[in-house]
Amino acid sequence: MRDAFIALLLIVFAIAGFGCKRDIKNPDEEERYTGPTIENHDVTTLYSDSAKLLIKLQAPVQQEFEEGDGVFPKGFYVEFYDEQGNLESTLRGNHGKQDPRKNLYYARGNVVVNNLKKKEKLETEELYWDRKKAKIYTEKFVKITTPEEILTGKGLTANQDLSRYSIKKVTGKFNFSEE
Q1: Which domains does the chain have, with CATH numbers?
Q2: Which residues cross the membrane (predicted)?
């Protein structure tokens, strides 16, 4: 009886040992997750200086990735305020990216910048916003509508509030007045 018990025990251990066999895989060959590590909804980010609101960024969805980059897959909307706290201009795009290491934002798809004080509007398909330098720029086609004229061209550099801008290859309708 004792020999039968030992034989049965050996059979059970042998079956258990074969059942626990695991394939050892090289971790470098494993497929890695590359999606967002964080996803936030209805995001509002405020940038201020000396307790004065300067910039307000809003997005329906913000995703952050392992290397720190952010993506706004459903677009974003930015408000720029002057030193007195008045809304000065706005920026929106259908899709956006953020590189926090460079303080650089990228907007694409129906990008519109409005300067509310001058009543001017910039339209383009792609725009970079350098938050640190307070500048916007693009190499794509741009259209600026003012109360008096429509300017078009390819390539633009401007202040983030669109108060001053330079179009590289200018075309469009111009009004000149002699004084």
Answers
A1: 39-173 (2.60.450.10)
A2: none
